[in-house]
Here is the input.
Amino acid sequence: MTTTTVFADLVKHVGGDRVNVTSLVPKGGEVHTFEPRPSDLTALERAKVVFMNGVGLDDWMTRMLQQTATNAPVLRLGENLPGVTYITGDEGPNPHLWLNVAYARKYVGRIADALSAAEPAAASVFAANAKAYDAQLATLDGWVRDRIGTIPADQRRLVSFHDAFPYYAQAYGLTIVGVVVPAPGQDPSAGQIAALVKAIRDAHVKAVFSEVQFSPQLAQAVAREAGAAVVSDLYDDTVGDPPVDTYEGIIRWDTDKVVAALAPA
Ligand SMILES: [Zn+2]
Here is the structure.
């Protein structure tokens, strides 16, 4: 069991047909403010391994685990990752590490270790799957870097709806000028919106991005006020329908959207 559909896709790539993976937050759902139902608790009790992100993304899973008698190992994929410098904001360390593909590869390594510990008889299958998927992600990482590199350096600035892209931006050479909401579920004050509009104008940011699991209206209003374009279908915390039904799919989709919006036509 995973908390999100993105982690479910990573687990599927490593586990192949040796695992059944269920995400508690459904496709298109919002992980930060998710409220589990009683039936989710029953499903959790059947899980053999639990994968969550930690770092404050899915704390509700910790509360659920306290309510069950499960002995299943719990992997916090994003916590204490070696070689990672955590980016900290007003809300604490940012949890969205997987949007840097190099960090997603670290998640994959952890998933392979956890599945092998849970099912030693299939360890060689998991290791082979993880190795092949890791190579695929290494290629993806280079592809993103090349694509973002086609945006003129002084145009590599963006605003997103919630603060999901600092690791992506850091990895691929973009600057996050601001975010529309301080955290999911928290509306910005009039003063915060005015400051963001000014920051967008001052930095000549061409586009405000919003993510599919949120209503686009606030991002649209900010973009209109600031004279920027709005792109309201980025993916970060959830997958969608093909071609964005996988982790690789969402990274390619987002990167194409960012390049299309920020590079000159
Ligand atoms: Zn998020």
User: Anything to note?
Assistant: The chain has two domains: 5-144, 151-262. The chain is about 45% helix and 10% strand. The longest helix spans residues 123-148. The first strand starts at residue 50 and ends at 52.
